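2.7 Reproducibility. Because tokenized structures are sensitive to small changes in the input, we list the exact sequence used for MoxR-like ATPase, including any N-terminal residues retained from the expression construct. No trimming or masking was applied before prediction.
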Amino acid sequence: MAEDLVAEIEALEEKLAEAKSAITRRFIGQERVVDLTLAALLCGGHALLIGLPGLGKTRLVETLSTVMGLNGNRVQFTPDLMPADILGSEVLETAADGSRAFKFLPGPIFCQLLMADEINRASPRTQSALLQAMQEKSVTIGGETRTLELPFHVLATQNPIEQEGTYPLPEAQLDRFLVQIDVAYPDRKTEKDILLATTGTEEAVAHQVFDPATLMAAQHLLRRMPVGDAVVEMILDLVRAFRPGDPSASARVRDTVAWGPGPRAAQALMLTVRARALLQGRLAPSPEDVMDMARPVLVHRMALTFSARARGEDLGSIIDEVCGTLEPSEAAA
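Resulting structure tokens (single pass, no recycling of outputs):
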């Protein structure tokens, strides 16, 4: 590895450590959630945060906006929200001389960090309004394509599907999220720290560490980070092991998985393992990074068969089982 690349990676690792420290002062005790969210931003992708209300998902996104120096907007998704409420619309405006012309009023999607709060409370039609923006970083309104400001990231929060008044996200949109992040209840010690930190007269204030240009430079640097052949082979082995029609799929996968992850999942793993290595202060990803990122990258890109759902099977557990059987030596062979 060239010396200048090593120096750039080490400098970025120091900056990431500072950003993580600034975030965890306000979002207490959920280091795994913070790491995965930062990984999504480093990879230039979007993240889906799943958890019950009141677990700090909104607070996390607001803090990220400040620390990463991004222009952020928040949209509260509701059943009556329309696509134009997100994208914007054209209105007929009358000038002082009496002439009329259409004027475009941009919606909240024209930002750098969009928080789509409770995204599964909106109708599928409104959810799909984000598809083009998430994939192409542009939107088409009134026949005109408008480019979004870069970098552009969507951090969506979602309530569990079992709650009333929610709509499951379509598979095509789920695949656009780089990672799914499960936000769980804090343990007792963490909850005590949260109580003491948030119910006094003063709260920790986040400070800016990155800016848009620095973040985009970090995203470019991440793609220059070398990945060993053993890690590449493990990524391929892992993704293909979850496709029921692939010869490498186990009987367990063929019996429980209706469809598996596509090539976009392998691309996501290739990026996120680099991000995890950066966040842990290493110069290159390892097979352990692949195992660690498998669940957040793959779980929302797969579906159970009807019989597996009836038996109460869990995709996360199946991913963990398959990862446990895949040894680094097999991939390197």
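The chain has two domains: 1-185, 225-333.
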